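To: structure desk
From: M.T.
Subject: fold request, one chain
Message: Could you run this one when you get a chance? Sequence is below, nothing fancy, just the single chain.
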Amino acid sequence: FLGGGMIKGISLVGKGIAKVPGVETALSVTKSLFSTATKNKEFDAVIFSGVIQYLKNYEKSIMEINRILKSNGKLILATVNRESLFRKLGIIKKEPKKEAGEHRIFSKREIKDLLERYGFQIKKVKGADFITMPKDLSSNLLFVALKAKKSSEET
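Reply: Done. Structure tokens follow.
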């Protein structure tokens, strides 16, 4: 599946990369995504799961992910959905949970616009819930996006 490659990770908490037989792993622990010594276009993929709603400067994070991804690199972003059925019905709070550190809850459209504005092409959006429902009403959304190639980059 991974072809004996290398899995590299950046973590704020010091965990997050499982050992995979036959695959070398390396984990850098950092206080901030912005304080890494990561080279431009170093990663094939970035998993950004359950993070964006906690960031004050979420746009800077998306720009940094774009910087460290290779051309056609894959971003997998998971976040809560402001327009979920449970939020509309009042079962889940509509506002960010400030006491838990959330700063902003996004709609599907806002995440799509944000990713496209910073050079990503949306490939797939899925609802991620414990019951089956239309993705637009799902409590959690999973985005799969590719870093768009710039016309000046080689193919």
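Reply (cont.): The first helix runs from residue 58 to 68. Let me know if you need anything else for the meeting.
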